[in-house]
Amino acid sequence: MIVELIKQVRRLRTKLGLGAMVGLPALLALVFWLGRGQAGERGAPQDIFALATQSGLNFAAASLEAMGRFFLVVVVALFAGEPVAGEANWGTLRYLLVRPVPRPRLLRDKLVVAMLLGAVAILLVPLAGMAAGTIAFGWGRLQIPFGSLGTGPALTKLAIGTAYEAVSLSAIAALAFMLSTMTSSPAGPVSVAVGAAIVSQILDAIPSLGNVAKWLPTHYWGAWTQILARPPQSGDMLRGVLAQLPYVAVFCVVAWFWFQRKDILS
Q: Alpha carbon of 137 to those of 65, 96, 132: distances in Å?
């Protein structure tokens, strides 16, 4: 697993993906700083983005919410959709498969490393947002509707939100990883996974779907912001975690069976 981690970290796409998770919050902070004079005129007081310029902690929360719907999806899908398909594309997969290493172990190592890199990418967003927000707007309490939170409680809630964001993206990551075992083109799994996330969000916005929408993998994205309310709510977060489980289980099982029967000459 260490060998796989070192190999993945050294790749250019890893460096670019993680670098983007640091650079985009900084760019977002610059945009908010330039428009700070009008920020208070837009959005309701309970809007997380209307409060973004109140402190570095607020900007960290806003960065996590802003990037969770698309940019994080792309990076997580990239890390999960490239490992197996990339090896096949370069012609090195067949050499890995003929080595005396069980296929389940090889697949497990690639999945764990992909999930680890995805988690690091997600973690970098609030950290970079906090750093950029503190430089641009100063350090202070986390302002929430009808109150504020000190540093300790605020960091705890941001940690919970970051962990929830990682779980929320697990179904998309598992889909990209499953597709990675089926093709030799890394672009395919990544684009399909990102497209699936976009389609799911579009379907989720259709009122006529009713309760069916609750089983879409993206329905409870952003539910972590409810813990910033007063009193905090966590019901949708639990439902969001449960909604990911069947997707992750099915995609991982299919990936395992497919990889077990993969032709080394294909």
A: 18, 50, 8
Average pLDDT over residues 252-263: 87
What are the tokens at 232? 């905090």
How is the chain split into domains, by residue range?
Answer: 2-260
Contacts of 223 (CB under 8 A, 6+ apart): 164, 168, 236, 237, 239, 240
d(CA 132, CA 226): 24
Question: How many degrees, rounded to 5, is the angle at CA 59 between CA 132 and CA 123?
Answer: 75
Residues 6+ apart with CB under 8 A from 118: 75, 76, 79, 80, 166, 169, 173
**Structure confidence by residue, pLDDT tens digits, 82-129:** 888 887 777 777 777 777 678 888 889 999 999 999 999 999 999 999
Count Cβ neighbours within 10 Å for each residue of 144-165 and write b for 16 or more, e otherwise. Answer: beeebbeeeebbebbeebbbbb
